[in-house]
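Blinded run. Sample ID left blank on purpose so nobody reads anything into the name before looking at the predicted structure. Input follows.
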Amino acid sequence: MKRKIYNELLQWKQKSNGKTAIMIDGARRTGKSFIAEEFARNEYNSYILVDFNRADTNLLDIFENYLTKLDLFFNFLSLYFNVRLHERNSVIIFDEVQLYPKARAAIKYLVADGRYDYIETGSLVSINRNVKDIVIPSEERCIDMFPMDFERFKQREQRQNTY
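Blinded prediction complete.
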């Protein structure tokens, strides 16, 4: 399903050249995770999807213990997800990042490292409890995602009527 936000993600990838992460903010159940993963699958050689809603203690330990040692951090992340990362042609998605604010705060250092691109998704990311004790990184560009509009529903309905 084609979403308008996909073009915004393409523009971000082309213009940012790894200098900014992108935060997809929006209401719950609007397709943020879906579009982030679809974009990653189509536009990069490989990607890692870190879903903080499902993160187990082993994954959180990687974040807790190695965010300051990026070589180890990327190696352990790659092993955990069994994904080979390619410098400047892989993206790491932090899904539901509001559930783990330390990952969002780390964007500053991850972007500065320059090896990979970063997409964050979240709902209610600006609520005080979701940004408590972190500095919002200036290396983060935020775009809002909305539910499908009438134009999208109409196109979808037209396609369904042709079958």
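Unblinding after everyone has recorded impressions. Residues 5-161 form a domain with the Rossmann fold fold (CATH 3.40.50.300).
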